[in-house]
Amino acid sequence: MLFHFALPVRRVDGIPQRTRTLFDLSEECRLVFPAELNRAPQWADFRIAWNDDGLAVQVEVGGKRQRPRCDVERPSESTGVQLWIDTRNTQTIHRAGRFCHAFALLPCGSKGDAPVAFALPIARAREDAMLADATRIRCASDVHREGWRLNAWIPGEILMGFDPDSFPRLGFYYAVRDAELGEQTLNVGRDFPFSHDPSQWSTLELTAAR
Known about the structure:
By secondary structure, the protein is mainly β. The protein is 0% helix and 35% strand.
């Protein structure tokens, strides 16, 4: 990669809340890659925030004609969101280490019921790291024919090495998949091996702004 980009992520305290949606992230939390470098259609609104307790992810997809169909048997190929997180932001390695994590978040289950989260192994990883406990990820969703919205709270305790004070920069990548609309990624597409190569990921800077 000729360039590695660092994107600021706002700190939002007081989340998750004891509400049905867990949180509602503002426009300032939208994660935007430079438009001149990513000309692909951006049909998913991706927002992210952090605090000392973990990461909040909010994804909203509209413009659909049918409800999403999710497959819990194949979460990495299903409608939903995939996340890759490196709590040490190691941009020079090509194989995932023990501080690298992958998750699949689905807006509903196979029967159209509650949202579900999975921890995924990363192919070709250097170390057989223990998978994060995805049952501790809190999810809330709103699914309808015209689109879907998914909120997910990822507690820092399940992210090995999550320490914003000492390591305020995270390696990060996302891919939003929808059977009807296709796939939206943070920057490069499937021509690049971002699913298992941390050197392809961008950097999140955990800023102190609230």
